[in-house]
Design goal:
By secondary structure, the chain is of the alpha+beta class. The chain has helices at about 5, 15-25, 60-65, 75-80, 85-95, 115-125, 180-185, 250-255, 260, 280-290, 295-300, 310-315, 330-340, 395-420, and strands spanning about 10, 30-35, 55, 100, 105-110, 130-135, 135-145, 145-150, 155-160, 160-165, 195-200, 200-205, 215-225, 230-240, 245, 265-270, 345-350, 360, 380-385. Helix 2 (about 15-25) runs parallel beside helix 6 (about 115-125) and helix 10 crosses helix 13.
């Protein structure tokens, strides 16, 4: 191995984890080559948070880990070493002004995801990181149980003393997340756990839900059950689609029902008025009816429900829309209360990787050093970001995982290489 390669760290993938790893390594004085098969940096960053980039969640550390449903313990060292406050400060220092919104979700002040990528790109340029776009890595070069470089798809080889794999998962494959890192890991002898889409919309069975396509609901609660067992309950926003349901509330639910939905359909219900008990809701409906006793029920319902939902909710309560309010029976009114507080439907399956925010599964964390992100099987080989078997709920938690693991990998690789070879 030449002297040059001994001083070189190669990072595969210029997403959030890869670019942060490049910055952390170069900041320690390492020579860094960042390889990206796409034509531009941070392609997936541009579509996160609907283009606004919810780049972290500005909660305390304890709350952060409660939002990591899978392998949270593995992240303790990296997240505590570079937490959400450190991440926000890092970007602020690079000239990216930020803000924190409801739910502790942090965004660039401009609401433009490009600011995040630009901040990373500017820092990499300042630190002298060699960025090579359109450079697709075909395989890792491993020699004598350690990483020695990579081979590109054009057949050329680049030697290095350390390789960091930060290639993302399988979600949003149009951004370049096509699972290359999982193949690299397997070829290096690593176990890759089962890969499934997560933070993903849900398919539903009932036809009447399709009548509400495009309708968004705010401040509702969603509960999902398998038989009598409650799998998920949450409060927030959701939307009806041409296939079922989506939105932040639904995406979070998808993370908790992963295992059970594969076994069969699940029952779910929405509480459209979670701030009201059934008795309070009944009293409100009575009041509306009393004030409008001669009107058709569908006109009065407009004060209680969105327009697209009125025919659906009345249908479930078995009330004809043109029924005069004074003709609505007590039983029908009680049915309306039940349909409002327990709007039931059936979840049939998850949507696919094309619509998933993240991938559940990845390189087994049992085979990775949690402090450094280095492989326990191959010296000088590191993994960071979504390629690892860790994931969080929606709200900035997954990008924080990328920043933390990328920073840990970059820093550890650079420190190790400046201290010389393994003994």
């Amino acid at each position: 191995m030449s002297q040059d390669s001994r001083n070189t760290i190669i990072i595969v993938g210029a997403g959030a984890a890869g670019m942060m790893a490049a910055c952390a390594a170069a900041d320690q004085g390492a020579e860094v080559i960042l390889l990206e098969k796409n034509e531009k940096l941070g392609k997936k960053i541009y579509i996160t948070g609907k283009g606004r980039c919810n780049f972290t969640n500005y909660c305390d550390t304890e709350e952060f880990f409660s939002n990591i449903p899978h392998n949270s313990r593995f992240l303790y060292s990296s997240v505590c070493g570079f937490d959400s406050r450190a991440v926000r400060s890092w970007f602020e220092e690079k000239g990216v002004r930020t803000k924190v919104e409801r739910g502790n979700r942090a965004f660039p002040l401009s609401d433009h995801a490009s600011d995040i990528t630009r901040g990373l790109e500017k820092e990499m340029r300042r630190l002298g990181v060699q960025v090579r776009l359109g450079a697709e890595v075909k395989q890792l070069i491993l020699e004598d149980g350690r990483a020695a470089g990579v081979m590109l798809s054009d057949g050329s080889r680049i030697s290095a003393s350390r390789v960091i794999v930060a290639t993302g998962g399988l979600s949003y494959p149009t951004t370049g997340s096509t699972g290359d890192g999982y193949r690299f890991a397997k070829e290096a002898g690593h176990k890759v756990t089962e890969l499934t889409p997560s933070l993903v919309p849900l398919n539903t069975k009932e036809q009447d839900l399709l009548l509400m396509q495009g309708l968004s609901l705010k401040n509702v609660s969603l509960t999902v059950r398998s038989g009598r067992k409650k799998l998920y309950t949450g409060f927030g926003e959701m939307m009806f689609t041409h296939f079922g349901i989506t939105g932040p509330l639904v995406l979070s639910a998808s993370a908790d029902i992963q295992n059970q939905i594969r076994k069969g359909e699940l029952s779910a219900e929405i509480d459209l008025k979670p701030a009201l008990e059934e008795e309070q809701l009944n009293a409100r409906i009575l009041r509306e009816f009393a004030e409008n006793s001669n009107k058709a029920v569908h006109n009065v319902a407009a004060s209680l429900y969105p327009a697209k939902m009125i025919p659906v909710i009345l249908g479930r309560a078995k009330i004809s829309p043109d029924t005069p309010v004074h003709d609505v029976t007590k039983q029908q009114r009680q049915a309306l209360v039940q349909a409002t507080k327990h709007f039931a439907f059936t979840i049939t399956s998850l949507r696919g990787f094309n619509e998933a925010v993240i991938t559940r599964g990845g390189v087994s964390v049992k085979e990775i050093n949690p402090s450094t992100m280095e492989s326990r099987l191959v010296r000088g080989l590191y993994f960071a970001g979504e390629v690892l078997d860790v994931d969080g709920y929606t709200g900035g938690f997954n990008l924080q995982i990328a920043w933390s693991t990328g920073h840990a990998a970059g820093e550890a690789a650079s420190i190790t290489q400046t201290e010389g070879e393994y003994v």
